[in-house]
Give the backbone structure.
Amino acid sequence: MFDQTEWVWKDGKMVRWDLATIHVSAHALHYGSGVFEGIRCYVTEEGPAVFRLGAHLRRFSASAEVYGIPIPYSEDELRQAVVECIRINNYTSCYVRPICYYGSDTLGVHPRQCPVEVAILTWPWEAYLGDEGLKTGVRITVSPWLKFDSQMVPTTAKACGQYLNSMLAVRDAVRRGYDEALLLDSDGYIAEGSGENLFIVRDGRLFTNDEQSSILMGVTRDAVIQLAGDMGLEVRIGKLQLGDLLSCDEAFFTGTAAEVTPIRELDGNVIGGGGRGPITLKIQEAFFGATGGRNSRYRKWLDFVAERPVETMV
Ligand code: PMP
């Protein structure tokens, strides 16, 4: 996965990939005490461009704030560091993973004086649920693991330890032959995939849930809501039940890694026409039009990776 990653931004400097390490006594390794982001950089006619970098960095700050982790860099410094990472590694497109975590000082659960460390890792990453999944849709299953409730762990934050819940769910799904898991919340409503938000389409309208259903508020979800609105499609936001998914015309997942992936089957039940529906296709086209810089209306969502001199390298 990291064959093409030569440089990693770590605590303000560019370091070689093999030197970008942390100690076994780091607090984050033991307790998952870190927050992170997942961002994509796309090919455009004007070179690589990062999609919705500002929105991702704002969520990064918000996640850190919930956990009381003071990120020692401004949003602007991080924005420049992300762009620099992509440029120095010579990518045309890639995935970007900023992470901020407690390093090594104490292993008491209270992090006390643990240093706050920040890294930005980048690597080329294909479609998360496969190119075929993007075209023909994926098969999913209801997870026996529930999504944790927002009164237990702040679900709108993207924190390292929270992903154990997702890992349990996706492993179980894959072991049983499915592509992805669908987690329900503790009231039995649909929450989300292990790394994606859910949309359903019925009678030409889009439906999705929100933070009331213990979801991470996805940046892609937000982009799709805006794209759909601009296309004149109505989007309704509220709780979703399994019955809504089973009786809908089309369904799809959204996420930075998964992009806009149709869902064709839930536990052996065919969803809609059993493939990529016409509205899902329209949303995909609009989404990739925006990420690829082909629609001037959404250029505001792109940060272009311009040529700049490298200032800090070790
Ligand atoms: N839910 C979860 C649990 C996720 O991990 C992700 C991926 N970050 C999403 C939803 C989708 O969020 P985004 O569109 O911001 O990538």
Notes: DSSP finds eight helices and 17 strands in the chain.
